[in-house]
Specification:
mainly beta; 5-stranded mixed sheet; 4-stranded antiparallel sheet; globular
Length: 157
């Protein structure tokens, strides 16, 4: 099992739109040690996906928009396997990306057409269209990281 990697400090000030997502790779991956820091604008320039879905934290279905997590990872390590996700509130989880790639997770920037704010679980929220894939209730909740700011690729092919 992978150990929890060190994580960078929260970008200051928190919510700085010039640095909303840090993505790096462990030096032991086949991709080597790399780091990309994304601004909100850079994430918006990637192809955007939009879907409406229900989730644990809302009564009604909500609309989410953002790039595919796979598109973000392709820019740094196309063969990513295990990834570590960390939020501004210091929640973290290790996810086998290849196991969940079929669900086409997005790095949501918008909810119901409006930018996500820190108060509303933003500026980034990893989200899956649970309705489209008939995901059992709460089965993937641990990977729906809100206030996402850091991704580290731990292993790759």
């Amino acid at each position: 099992m992978a150990t929890t990697p060190p994580y960078p400090p929260i970008p200051q000030p928190a919510g700085n739109l010039d640095q909303v997502l840090i993505v790096n790779t462990a030096p032991t991956t086949s991709c080597g040690a790399k780091e990309l820091i994304f601004s909100e604008k850079q994430l918006q320039e990637l192809p955007q996906q939009t879907f409406r879905t229900k989730h644990t934290w809302a009564v009604e279905a909500q609309e989410f928009t953002g790039p595919l997590l796979a598109d973000v990872l392709k820019l740094i390590c196309p063969s990513a396997q295990d990834i570590y996700l960390r939020s501004l509130d210091q929640y973290s989880v290790i996810v086998n990306f290849q196991a969940v790639e079929k669900y086409q997770a997005i790095v949501a920037l918008r909810i119901n057409g409006k930018p996500l704010t820190i108060r509303e679980k933003g500026p980034l929220w990893l989200m899956i269209n649970t309705d489209a894939y008939n995901v059992p209730t709460r089965s993937l909740d641990s990977m729906f990281v809100w206030q996402l700011y850091y991704i580290r690729v731990l292993t790759s092919d």
